[in-house]
Amino acid sequence: MATKLLLHTLFISFLLAAPQGYSERPVLRATMTRSEKTIDFTRAVRRSHERLSMLAARLAAAAGDASAQTPLQQDGGGEYGMTFSIGTPPQQLSALADTGSDLVWLKCGPCTQCAPQGSPSYYPNTSSSFSKMPCSGGLCGVLKNQSLAACSTGGDECDYLYSYGLSKSSHHYTKGYLSTETFTLGTDAVPDIGFGCTTMSEGGYGTGSGLVGLGRGSLSLVSQLNVGAFSYCLTSDPNKSSPLLFGSGPLTGPGVQSTPLISVPSPSFYSVDLQSISIGNVTTPGTGDSGFIFDSGTTLTYLAEPAYTLAKAALLSQTNLTLADVGDASQVCFQTFGTSAEVPSMVLHFDGADMALPAENYFLPVGDGVICWIVQRSPSISIIGNIMQRSYHILHDVQNSELSFQPANCDNL
Ligand SMILES: *[C@@H]1O[C@H](CO)[C@@H](O)[C@H](O)[C@H]1NC(C)=O
Ligand SMILES: *[C@@H]1O[C@H](CO)[C@@H](O)[C@H](O)[C@H]1NC(C)=O
Ligand SMILES: *[C@@H]1O[C@H](CO)[C@@H](O)[C@H](O)[C@H]1NC(C)=O
Ligand SMILES: *[C@@H]1O[C@H](CO)[C@@H](O)[C@H](O)[C@H]1NC(C)=O
Ligand SMILES: *[C@@H]1O[C@H](CO)[C@@H](O)[C@H](O)[C@H]1NC(C)=O
């Protein structure tokens, strides 16, 4: 079994499944846009590794130190920004979409000591629907329980210090006061969404105006919208935006498959059981019930051992292409000649679902006819990054604890 990777035609719709038969519930529609049009492989390797380290550190610390929160990238590029409007009248903004964390926050007002710099802020003083969340607010309680918020004297303000690194002294945090506002997704206005009005922040948050937490915790936008499920479809066309739908599903039509969400390595992630991997004619073990995390903020894909080494051996044993040196001996890259290359097929076997990947989802052209396998060895947790998720409509059904996917032309959803 081999798959042809067309180097000059990377935007193949390998199966055009029309979205049909959505339930009658209203679907809230937003869009996600990649902040960089082309992916620099070397930078992607570094960035993805940093995110992996922070996700792993969060897990390691979760038992003892509740102040350890989430993963973030050091610099922007491979991640997706979500576009939406906030306030009355609406102010349109874009903020980093992150399935690995919960808090929604935006730079508020002039925000001269805020990262990221250069992006627009949300101005509460020009909105009639803005309110500060009092200390008695439910979401304030959630943060207070994790020692991430404190009340002002009088209790009229809930001040948070939300740290993304390992400790409060790390240079990855956002600080401000909890508020409520009307968020507009597509044409639908949703009042009283709790979010952080940030007055100071440090760290890498892409190029937008803050961060939209899409995790499984109660602070996340997904939980607050109370929609039970959300889905996205990441287009491979860098010039187009990708749909992000809240309240969508279940998926219907050809090719839909589902697998249970599991709570390992953490119930806050969208993790599944990857039972095995087929590369060409060879099937190797997956990461099993250690979990495989679907993450929108990691660009490349990570496999823990022994899954990584066995999959790599299966790939090398079935490829006749010449290995290429990209200055990093840990990367599996090949020299191709001409405009296409035969690479072995790659299928992910989840608990009850098989994902037969198009070659574009696991080989990335890096220039000069060289293609690199995007799979990386992980010393800890395993992650399916955003390149490997492209051209699938992926539904996170939080309510039913299930992840479904369907090959799709994301531009038509
Ligand atoms: C809102 O605040 C900004 C900066 O703090 C200020 O420049 C602007 O004039 C204010 N707008 C209104 C309508 O008060
Ligand atoms: C805070 O923690 C306490 C004790 O674990 C729990 O009873 C309460 O429901 C929590 N509050 C919130 C808002 O999560
Ligand atoms: C995307 O846009 C750029 C600049 O407008 C253009 O050069 C490029 O060919 C476009 N890419 C695709 C895949 O359409
Ligand atoms: C895989 O199996 C098919 C059919 O049995 C065979 O034609 C092909 O050569 C095999 N490919 C490899 C890489 O072994
Ligand atoms: C690689 O080359 C060998 C010898 O020419 C051939 O037998 C084999 O089928 C080739 N394998 C693939 C995957 O093309």
From TrEMBL:
The active site is at D98, D295. Residues 80-406 form the Peptidase A1 domain. InterPro entries: Aspartic_peptidase_A1 (IPR001461), Aspartic_peptidase_AS (IPR001969), Pepsin-like_plant (IPR034161), PEPTIDASE_A1 (IPR033121), Peptidase_aspartic_dom_sf (IPR021109), Plant_Aspart_Prot_A1 (IPR051708), TAXi_C (IPR032799), TAXi_N (IPR032861). Residues 1-17 form the signal peptide. GO terms for biological process: proteolysis. Keywords: Aspartyl protease, Glycoprotein, Hydrolase, Protease, Signal. The keyword Signal applies. Pfam families: TAXi_C, TAXi_N. One of its GO terms (cellular component) is extracellular region. PROSITE patterns: ASP_PROTEASE (PS00141), PEPTIDASE_A1 (PS51767). Transmembrane segments: none annotated. Belongs to the peptidase A1 family. This is Peptidase A1 domain-containing protein. It comes from Digitaria exilis. The lineage of its organism: Eukaryota, Viridiplantae, Streptophyta, Embryophyta, Tracheophyta.
